[in-house]
Every structure is written in structure tokens, then in C-alpha cells.
């Protein structure tokens, strides 16, 4: 079995420039098309500023006094294609990543009854790209599996070079289960998924930050909630800022002053920095009572063949999951699946004894068992059968930030990339697939069927509706006016539903259905819960139910009328946003709700794009995000408008001018943070959008706007000049162009910057010319 070619082609941890691909890059080298390789997507073969010889360096030194860092820590934004972290990088069974456009919207209107919009979003190419927001939604709401290993297992794995134990070794392999995974919906219809994922977590780590973070908003402790949410979003901002700074410094150290770049915002693919922001935001999903996505669906209990009392050790591990100090809170259902594995030491243990012990385990604990055969020695990069184990895509922002800070402070910091034997990788992939297909998914399907028949069906019947009505009015409506839950409510005074209550069971039912992609069942169950939670004044539960109902409705095939669809989705998002932000002070919930809704609305296309931008503006007005998130969101809104196609040769109904406006606002935000490369891309995208407008509608008609763009462009040019050559040097001579006052054009210095940037007045980008080649206004009429 051979590893994937991407995993072994070169020892270099950095293989492409630290910027997103550009849809207008074809103009860089004239008629010559760029090569399909990662590095050539951004720059022409003759002017690639980050050559392979330079990129092969494993560390870099910043322009300040900071210590060298491992460049592999920034691979998720340096690599132009998919960020690393999935075991399919090293899997022979992995499929080649799709090169199709991941960000294209569906044609038509999201609120129209066209045939195209009666399909599910998963039928588009967006779900095939690991960096696309739709794919991030699917990979964030997945079953969580806790890892609880004995000390002898951790000792064995530590000897292999994994200091955090078995969890660290298994973690990357859960991010894509090998092969097709068949899942049945509530109607018994089976569908195969090739991108099914699991999230391995370490048993007991929930006791640190997540529980107070989750309960704070429920109990009304706004100060505690604010601190916890601020910590999460601050860490995300810091991580993305480090990646951006690394890109800027890599640019300064390798970019030739004469090399122009005309990259704009890539409408066809998601910005790696925006994808990183979303991924780190979603990877910080807290263990909370109001939703069960982070609750364990199963717990893997592992012992090794070295253990002198294996059966007793497994009993002890099981007891600790129910009674130990590390057990989950009372609002987590304790009846999750227990899965038992025996780790066999291939180098020091007798396989016949391990097989006999494994049979004894199955007799004692049932069929949910697995024999995992691993070598106990550490794999080196130079070994013939060694393959690299990518870092997890779904590490939290705090984890990544700690790694980056460690790389800056330690003199002897080592590349965090680990290597394992190919036989170990094959054994782990087999284990993950067997557990998912034979134990985990069947258990979830069985629970969905039982809960739907015994709880949800009664709630949907006439008697269930009558009981809901009686709870709502509380025999006279006293509770409705009092502002507290009625006496018949199952909502605990501590701020949660007990796991055996009908509301908690139905919430788990809806979450299980969502994780198994049964959108119809999930949507109908969330819709029922919205009313119940509102009646009980369980506002965080109410917000989360509205949020997930809107997501399911946007993903599932559309069969509602235009008016009903827009009213239903907007009402759900309004309820979720208001409850999260105002009633619960949950900044994380409000941010996650609206940002993901923005992406799903954008993918629906048509008038859904206008709705997406409207919600984006609401996030900006609420100041939920920091400076980095604010700038990234403005970029994203420019892309939203740019992706809306118009009708006819004049593209009636397109939003090019609005797209250009948001690009300019994004550039302004990046300039304020001294991120000149990102600002340059935004200005280039604005130039592109303005160049598509008719001549008489260009920006040159508006003197104040032109002056503002001139100022921005000059700031970008000066910033890049200082970065490349220092404040005392000059890159190019200044050109002058004269325009007729009758055309409302003024005589001003041309702002053609040395990197092919946009001119301020007309946003024109052109190669540098000699003085003899300079003629009057540019051909597109924008000066």
C-alpha cells in the first residue's frame, strides 16, 4: 500500500505562496496560461516570487526580533489547495481532491420555485472542496467520539512520539472515514457518503473551559459568558493574524521589487484566511446543554497487550465514564456507545495471546470491540515505510496559538509533523471505518428510530399539540405574562433540561438526524422544539433550535413558495440572533449563526445573495468580530455580490458596483492593520468590478470617491515600498496623466503601483511602461 502522492513528493513543508488563488490571474502573463501547480496559480512561471528553493526552508525569521518559526504551522494558508490534516493525504484509498469551483452559487433565486433550487445544496460542487464553507458546515456538525485510554496504552503511544497519547494519534484519521459510508434516513432510504467524518476528543478535557462557557449564558451570568466568548473569538483572531503576518513577512523576504501582481479576491475559491477563520471558530464548539453536537456519541476505551489485568482495566475505564471525576455533566446523556479496543504491540507481544484476550473481551463486553495492531517503535522520516501524519484541521484556536507561540520562544523548536509506519496507518484507517460503519452509525440510526417513534411522533400528534397548547397558556396564561416557565415545564431551575426529558431527547434526535444528513427529519424536529423552548423561556435552547432549523431548511431541497421561504428563514435567523445576543449574551452563538447562514444563503444564489449581505451588515453593526474578522467579512460580502450574475448582455441585476464598494471597504480595513497584500487584492478586485461597468458609470464620475481610492492606493503602494526596499528608496518613477475637465477628470499623479496595483481614480491595472509608451487615458475609460 503506497501513500498518497501529495504526502511524499518533497520534504518541504511549504509548497506554495501564502495567498489565495485569483480568478483574474490569466492576465498576468498575457496569452501564456499558468501551470496547474499550486505555486503557479498565483504567479507566472517566470516571476514566481516564492521559488521552490526558498520554500524548502523549514523555518523563517521575521523582520523583527522574534525567533524562527516552523513554516509547517502555517500550511493551512500557505498551501493554495486543501489545508492538510486529513489522513487521505497519506491514504491510497483517497480520492483526488476536486479542482472544480467550490464557491459557485446555484443559478436562479433562492426564493424562486425553479427546478434548480428544489435540489439540495449537497448536489453542488461546493460540498467537494474541503475549504468551502458548506464543507466546513458538514465537517463541523459531526459525531464526537471520546478517547479514554489506560496508562499502558498512553505509554506505548508516547514511545511512538505522540506525547498526548492515543487521542493525538487517532485524531487526524477521523476527519475523513475511508471509503463510502452508507447512512439510512428515517424513511429507510440509504445513501452513500464519501466525506463522512468523526471528531475524536480526549475524555475529561471538557472540565477545563467549556462547561462554564456553556452554562454562563443559560444562568444569566453575562460577565462570565462575556469573558469566555471573548477568549474564544480573541484566540481565533490571533491565529488568523499570525497567518496573515507570516504571509506578509514571506512576501517581504522573497518578492522581487519589479514583479507585478494583479491578484484580486478569488470569487471562485474561498480565501484560505477566511476558511481558517471559520474552521477555528467552529472547532471551538463548546460542550453545552442547549445542543448535543459536542456531546459524545461514543467513547473508545483502550487497553494494550502489555496490561497485566486487561479485563479489570476495562471495567475500571467504564466505571470512570459514569462515576469518576472526569465524567460528563449531568445534562449529558450517559447512555452513549462504549467501544472497546485492544492495542496489540506488534514488536513485543505474542499475537496468539492477544487474540485469546480479544475473544474474551467480546464475550464480556459484546461485539463493539476491535483489535488494533500497532508497532511500538517510533517512525523516522527516513524509514522506507514511513509516511507523514498531517496535523488535525480541526484543532482549536487555543491549540494552534500555543504551538505558534512555542515555536517563537523555543530555541530548539522542532517541526510538529509526525511520521508513522504505513502498516500503522492502514490499521488505524481500518479501525475507524469499522467502528463508524458497524457500530457508531447503526447505533445512531437505531436511536433516531426509537426516539422518533416513542417521543417525537407523540409530540406531533393531536394529544401532543394539545399538551403543548396547555403548557403555553398554563391554564389561564399566568406564566405567559409572568415571564417565567410554567410549573409543568421540564426546564430545570439551573438552566437546562435533564437528558431524560422529552425536550432533551428530541433535541438529540434532531442533532443526530442533522449529523447523519437527514435534513427533513432534523428540520421538522427543530421546528417543534422552537415553540416548546419559547414557552419555557429557555432562550439559549430557543436560539439554537432556530439556528439549526434555518440551516437545515437552507441545505435541504426547497419545496416552499417564494414568500414562505423568505419569511420563514428570516424569522428563524432573527429569533436566533436576538436570543443569542440580547437574552443570553452569547457572542459565539450569534457569530456562528449569522456567518454560516450568510454562506448558505450565498450558495443558494439569486436574491439569497442580497439576504446574505444584509445579515453580514448586521454582524458588522453589532461588532461581534474583531478587526481581522471584520476585514475578512467585508471581503466575503464583496465576493457575495461578485458571484451574482445578471441577465442579458448588460448583466442587468448584477451587483458589480456593490461588490466594488465592499472591496474598497475591505481594503480600507486591511490598510488600517498594515496588511498591504490583502489590501492590494481588494483594490484589484474593485478595479476589476469597475472595469466591467459601462464607461459612463465608472468611478471617475465621483470626485470624492476617486480621491478616496487614490488615498488608499497610495497607502498600499507606500506600504509595499517600505516593506520591500525601505523608506529611503523608491521603486518607480511617477507617471502623470492629463484628463479633460469636461469628463469631470482632474490632473493627478497616476497611482500605478509597482505591483500592478489599481490606479486610484480609475482602478486601472497595467504593466509598467517606459515613459515613451505612456499615452493618455487607459482604454477602458477609467483613467
TrEMBL record:
Ranges where the record places region Disordered: 1-107, 734-783
A Pfam family this chain is assigned to: TRAPPC-Trs85
Compositionally biased region (Polar residues): 41-83, 92-107
Superkingdom, natural source: Eukaryota
Protein's name in the database: Transport protein particle subunit trs85-2
Organism field: Podospora comata
Amino acid at each position: 500500500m503506497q501513500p498518497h502522492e501529495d504526502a511524499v513528493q518533497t520534504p518541504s513543508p511549504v509548497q506554495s505562496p501564502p495567498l489565495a488563488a485569483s480568478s483574474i490571474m490569466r492576465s498576468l502573463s498575457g496569452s501564456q496560461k499558468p501551470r496547474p501547480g499550486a505555486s503557479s496559480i498565483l504567479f507566472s512561471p517566470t516571476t514566481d516570487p516564492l521559488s521552490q528553493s526558498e520554500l524548502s526552508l523549514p523555518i523563517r525569521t521575521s523582520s523583527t526580533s522574534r525567533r524562527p518559526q516552523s513554516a509547517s504551522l502555517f500550511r493551512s494558508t500557505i498551501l493554495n489547495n486543501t489545508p492538510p490534516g486529513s489522513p487521505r493525504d497519506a491514504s491510497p484509498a483517497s480520492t483526488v481532491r476536486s479542482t472544480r469551483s467550490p464557491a459557485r452559487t446555484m443559478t436562479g433565486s433562492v426564493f424562486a420555485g425553479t427546478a434548480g433550487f428544489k435540489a439540495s445544496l449537497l448536489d453542488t460542487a461546493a460540498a467537494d472542496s474541503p475549504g468551502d464553507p458548506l464543507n466546513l458546515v458538514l465537517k463541523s456538525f459531526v459525531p464526537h467520539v471520546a478517547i479514554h485510554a489506560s496508562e499502558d496504552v498512553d505509554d506505548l503511544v508516547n514511545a511512538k512520539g505522540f506525547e498526548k497519547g492515543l487521542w493525538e494519534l487517532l485524531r487526524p484519521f477521523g476527519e475523513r472515514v475511508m471509503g463510502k459510508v452508507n447512512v439510512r434516513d428515517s424513511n429507510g432510504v440509504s445513501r452513500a457518503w464519501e466525506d463522512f467524518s468523526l471528531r475524536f476528543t480526549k475524555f475529561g478535557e471538557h472540565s477545563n473551559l467549556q462547561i462554564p462557557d456553556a452554562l454562563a449564558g443559560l444562568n444569566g451570568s453575562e460577565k462570565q459568558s462575556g469573558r469566555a466568548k471573548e477568549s474564544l473569538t480573541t484566540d481565533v483572531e490571533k491565529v488568523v493574524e499570525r497567518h496573515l503576518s507570516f504571509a506578509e513577512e514571506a512576501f517581504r523576504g522573497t518578492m522581487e521589487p519589479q514583479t507585478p501582481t494583479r491578484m484580486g479576491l478569488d470569487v471562485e475559491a474561498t480565501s484560505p484566511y477566511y476558511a481558517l477563520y471559520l474552521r477555528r471558530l467552529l472547532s471551538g464548539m463548546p460542550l453545552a446543554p442547549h445542543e448535543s453536537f459536542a456531546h459524545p456519541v461514543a467513547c473508545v476505551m483502550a487497553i494494550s497487550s502489555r496490561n497485566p489485568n486487561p479485563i479489570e482495566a476495562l471495567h475500571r475505564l467504564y466505571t470512570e465514564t459514569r462515576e469518576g471525576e472526569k465524567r460528563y455533566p449531568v445534562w449529558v446523556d450517559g447512555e452513549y456507545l462504549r467501544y472497546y479496543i485492544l492495542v496489540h504491540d506488534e514488536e513485543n507481544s505474542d499475537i496468539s495471546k492477544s487474540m485469546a484476550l480479544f475473544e474474551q473481551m467480546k464475550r464480556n463486553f459484546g461485539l463493539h470491540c476491535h483489535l488494533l495492531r500497532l508497532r511500538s517503535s517510533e517512525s523516522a522520516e527516513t524509514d522506507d515505510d514511513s509516511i507523514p501524519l498531517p496535523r488535525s484541521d480541526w484543532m482549536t484556536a487555543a491549540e494552534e496559538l500555543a504551538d505558534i507561540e512555542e515555536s517563537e520562544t523555543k530555541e530548539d523548536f522542532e517541526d510538529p509533523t509526525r511520521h508513522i509506519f504505513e502498516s500503522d496507518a492502514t490499521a488505524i484507517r481500518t479501525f475507524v471505518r469499522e467502528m463508524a460503519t458497524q457500530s457508531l452509525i447503526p447505533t445512531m440510526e437505531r436511536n433516531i428510530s426509537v426516539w422518533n417513534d416513542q417521543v417525537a411522533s407523540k409530540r406531533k400528534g393531536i394529544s401532543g399539540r394539545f399538551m403543548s397548547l396547555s403548557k403555553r397558556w398554563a391554564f389561564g396564561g399566568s406564566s405567559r405574562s409572568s415571564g417565567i416557565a410554567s410549573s409543568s415545564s421540564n426546564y430545570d431551575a439551573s438552566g437546562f433540561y435533564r437528558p431524560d426529558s422529552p425536550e432533551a431527547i428530541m433535541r438529540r434526535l434532531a442533532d443526530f438526524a442533522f449529523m447523519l444528513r437527514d435534513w427533513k427529519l432534523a428540520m421538522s424536529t427543530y421546528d417543534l422544539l422552537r415553540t416548546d423552548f419559547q414557552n419555557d423561556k429557555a432562550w439559549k435552547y430557543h436560539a439554537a433550535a432556530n439556528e439549526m432549523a434555518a440551516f437545515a431548511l437552507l441545505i435541504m431541497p426547497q419545496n416552499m413558495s417564494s414568500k414562505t421561504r423568505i419569511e420563514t428563514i428570516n424569522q428563524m435567523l432573527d429569533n436566533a440572533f436576538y436570543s443569542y445576543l440580547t437574552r443570553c449574551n452569547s457572542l459565539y452563538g450569534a457569530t456562528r449563526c449569522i456567518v454560516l447562514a450568510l454562506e448558505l444563503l450565498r450558495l443558494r444564489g439569486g436574491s439569497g445573495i442580497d439576504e446574505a449581505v444584509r445579515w453580514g451588515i448586521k454582524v458588522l453593526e453589532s461588532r461581534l468580530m474583531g478587526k481581522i474578522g471584520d476585514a475578512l467579512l467585508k471581503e466575503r460580502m464583496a465576493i457575495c455580490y461578485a458571484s451574482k450574475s445578471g441577465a442579458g448582455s448588460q448583466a442587468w441585476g448584477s451587483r458589480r458596483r456593490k461588490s466594488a464598494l465592499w472591496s474598497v471597504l475591505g481594503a480600507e480595513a486591511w490598510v488600517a492593520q498594515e496588511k498591504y497584500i490583502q489590501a492590494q487584492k481588494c483594490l484589484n478586485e474593485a478595479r476589476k468590478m469597475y472595469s466591467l461597468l459601462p464607461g459612463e458609470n465608472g468611478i471617475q464620475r465621483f470626485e470624492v470617491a476617486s480621491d478616496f481610492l487614490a488615498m488608499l492606493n497610495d497607502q498600499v503602494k507606500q506600504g509595499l515600498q517600505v516593506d520591500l526596499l525601505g523608506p529611503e528608496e523608491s521603486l518607480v518613477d511617477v507617471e502623470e496623466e492629463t484628463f479633460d475637465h469636461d469628463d469631470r477628470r482632474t490632473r493627478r499623479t497616476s497611482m500605478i503601483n509597482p505591483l500592478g496595483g489599481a490606479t486610484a481614480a480609475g482602478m486601472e491595472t497595467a504593466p509598467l511602461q517606459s515613459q515613451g509608451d505612456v499615452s493618455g487615458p487607459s482604454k477602458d475609460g477609467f483613467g
